[in-house]
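Entry type: protein chain
Record version: 2
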Amino acid sequence: MPLRRPGPAILAQAAAAVAAMLALPMWPPASGKLLLVPITGGDANDMARIALDGGAALIGAGPLPGSLVVAGDRAELVAHTPNIAALVTAAPATACGSSLGAEPFE
């Protein structure tokens, strides 16, 4: 008996599961270490301004050009982020360097 090809519903479910497994680790926590990534050509200075306006503490440079790792509250950062200026994601230790401490810059 020949094997049947999976139907479109099975393929859609598999694609959704893979997308969720890739996206969930990057979902930003309510508070803690966050990664600010510029998406409209901003630089680290723009990200620092957004972070400080949102009450976050600067931790260090992120792994992407112009990105910044900060410690703060996600809702406050998003409220102070201009439309389509930056993406706020989780700051995983593997992407942002596990040597980054929890202490912000002084």
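Comment: Residues 45 and 92 are 22 Å apart (CA to CA).
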